[in-house]
Write a structure and sequence with these properties.
By secondary structure, the protein is an all-alpha fold. The protein is 65% helix and 0% strand. The protein has helices at 12-16, 35-43, 45-62, 66-78, 84-115, 126-140, 142-145. It is globular and about 60 Å long. It starts with 11 loop residues before the first helix and ends with a helix.
C-alpha cells in the first residue's frame, strides 16, 4: 500500500498507529497499543465517514434484512461469518440502538416545537444510524486492524 506523505500535512491516522519511517529503507517498524489509537477510531471524521459508507453499502445490499446486514458486515470486515453469539450480540445492539435513537429523535422534535427555532439538520433514519455505529465498532476492532 502506498500513500503520499507531505511534511506539511502529516497523516494523523498513521501517526496514531506508529507510522513507519518514511525513508528509502524501513527495516523494522515499532508497534504499540495506546489510548490515542482508540480515541482516533472513536472521533476521527475519516472513520465516521467510512463507517457511514460501509453502513450504506450493507443497507443497499441486504434490503432491510438485519441478519443479512450483520453477516455481510462480518464478511467484509473480517473475511468470515459471525459466530452465533456475535450475530446475536450485534442484532441485540442494533435493536436497542434503534429504540434509543428513535427516542432521541422524538425528544429533539418535541424540543424544537417548544422552542420554535430552526429545525436541526436532518439525520439518517435510526436503523441506518445504528448500523453505522455497528460498522464503526467493526472498523475499530483488533481483528480488523491487525493481522495475526
Amino acid at each position: 500500500i502506498y500513500v503520499q506523505v507531505r511534511r506539511s500535512r502529516p497523516l494523523a491516522m498513521l501517526h496514531a498507529f506508529d507510522a513507519p519511517v518514511m525513508e528509502v529503507n524501513c527495516e523494522r517498524r515499532q508497534s504499540s497499543t495506546v489510548a490515542t489509537q482508540s480515541l482516533m477510531l472513536m472521533n476521527s471524521q475519516f472513520i465516521l465517514d467510512q463507517a457511514a459508507r460501509f453502513a450504506q453499502r450493507l443497507h443497499a445490499e441486504a434490503a432491510d434484512d438485519r441478519v443479512r446486514e450483520v453477516t455481510r458486515a462480518w464478511q467484509l470486515a473480517f473475511s468470515r461469518n459471525p459466530t452465533v453469539s456475535e450475530l446475536a450480540d450485534a442484532l441485540e445492539f442494533l435493536s436497542r440502538q434503534v429504540d434509543h435513537l428513535q427516542t432521541v429523535v422524538e425528544e429533539t422534535d418535541e424540543q424544537a416545537k417548544k422552542n420554535e427555532k430552526a429545525k436541526p439538520a436532518p439525520k439518517p433514519p435510526p436503523e441506518l444510524q445504528a448500523l453505522t455505529e455497528l460498522c464503526q465498532a467493526l472498523l475499530s476492532a483488533n481483528e480488523f486492524l491487525y493481522v495475526d
